[in-house]
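This part of the workshop introduces the protein records we will be handling. An example says more than a description, so a record of this kind follows:
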Amino acid sequence: MAELKKTDSITLKVEMSSWTDRKGEVHEGLSMREFVTSKRYTGPGKNGIFIPKELIPEFKKIVENL
């Protein structure tokens, strides 16, 4: 897992993860999500994306060309 501190209360966490949908299918990929730390709430925020494992090579090429 990698972390990037955006502000005092928001950290971007990047990690490989998996989840199971309602049909029981497992989806693996790269998860990038903001995590919030505040007096009222600590945990994952609404902002984030999930890139399926099979699209990671294409995503890497896009990032390298920035």
About this structure: The chain has one domain: 2-64. The helical segments are 56-64. Residues 18 and 27 are 5 Å apart (CA to CA). The beta strands are 2-5, 10-20, 26-37, 42-52.
